[in-house]
Amino acid sequence: MEPGERRPKRIRQVLLFFVFLGGSLVCSEPWRYSVAEEMEIGSVIANVVKNIGLGVEDLVARGARVIFDDYKPYLLLDQQTGNLLLNEQLDREALCHLTEPCILHFQVLFENPLQFFRAELWVKDINDHTPAFLDKHILLKISESTAPGTSFQMDSAQDLDVGKNGVQNYTLSPNPYFHLKLQASDDGGKYPELLLDQFLDREKEPEFRLTLTALDGGSPPRSGTTLVRVLVLDINDNAPEFESPVYEVQVPENSPVDSLVVRVSATDLDAGIYGELSYSFSHVSTDIRKTFEIHPISGEIHLKALLDFELIQSYTINIQAVDGGSLSGKSAILVQVVDVNDNAPEIVMTSLTSPIPENSSPEMVVAIFSLRDQDAGDNGKMVCSIQDDLPFLLKPTFKNFYTLVTELPLDRESQAEYNIAITVTDLGTPRLKTQHNLTVTVSDVNDNAPAFSQAAYTLFLYS
């Protein structure tokens, strides 16, 4: 090879996959702790020393720390006592929305020697939200010829709490014409329907004002109300019918606001006002109302806000077509959010040892770091590598954690400093790449004896 020429660098690649090493590197069974949301900061959750069976002094000596999967400091490890302390006030609804149970995964990491203990923090719900109707007034138009037993669907109340603290029951103010019937929705909740008990007579009583109350199951229960206004109309004997009971659509998550999602259509055999249809959402969540909007005349549904596959992968939108006599037809739209490669891989350094002695033993841990890509499928798969001409090696350890270890003997007299570029590339289209640069210095040890420049010296003396 001619002077000045440089050999092309070969990149060693290590596919990111989950691997469990032998021995006691990873605790097989996760610890489980629980905490009620909104508990005060500084509250003691548990003591890790009791779980591990070590002394408190080992926490500092072994570099113990707590790392959550989303890298947020929900808990703080007191290394003087071993107590896990609440580091911030938790809001279950903000963390998990309606997902139950609400589990935050984390690891207790010991650096020296390297060891992981898996753990889960279960955030328990408290009854801190009141049921609320999205509309303060519900208007129903009912024909006087409507037969007793006919049901009229009404929007359900929303409650950010889950389980028994969510909406459990509905009541209706006493009246001789209507009573409530509760129906189960697709998401496991309940929504109210108004059932007619006897024929209406518009000439006797053209309008009713009823109070609908939603109650949750807390102790004491919280409640919210809305006004149901019933207008009695003339005959309408055909309900609207949608052309499809279910519409299935796929929408890329990078679709701009106001993009057309789907156009629904229903027909009504009646003429005049009774054949005029109005489209609307039916007992949908606040998230759906914030994300989509439906045109009441055309039936077109457009995006009202940007989608994010990493937050919500699909939506089930219940819709209804209501004619001029308040008869309604029902359908549903299943929206699948399609992931695009919009998140670059992330490298999070946990620890770095520098300088390192030149007489370090092979596979000495120089750095510990973890990788994360919030995309799904190939968009979330990653390849991790360093330069090939270095005496270091990347080793996958636990979950998405890697260690950088020495592979060959070091010699400070030959090279006292190494610049290491950790490169992570995902497998999406287009491929996104992240690079993190490390500088590792080599410290000297006394491994060279003094030496003269020549074996003998000759002197001439003149007298």
From TrEMBL:
Residues 1-36 form the signal peptide. It comes from the Eukaryota. GO terms for biological process: homophilic cell adhesion via plasma membrane adhesion molecules. GO terms for molecular function: calcium ion binding. It is a single-pass membrane protein. It holds the Pfam family Cadherin_2. One of its GO terms (cellular component) is plasma membrane. SMART domains: CA. Its main location: membrane. It is found in: Membrane. Transmembrane segments: none annotated. Residues 142-242, 243-347, 348-452 form the Cadherin domain. Keywords: Calcium, Cell adhesion, Glycoprotein, Membrane, Repeat, Signal, Transmembrane, Transmembrane helix. PROSITE patterns: CADHERIN_1 (PS00232), CADHERIN_2 (PS50268). This is Protocadherin beta-18-like. The lineage of its organism: Eukaryota, Metazoa, Chordata, Craniata, Vertebrata. The gene is LOC101377578.
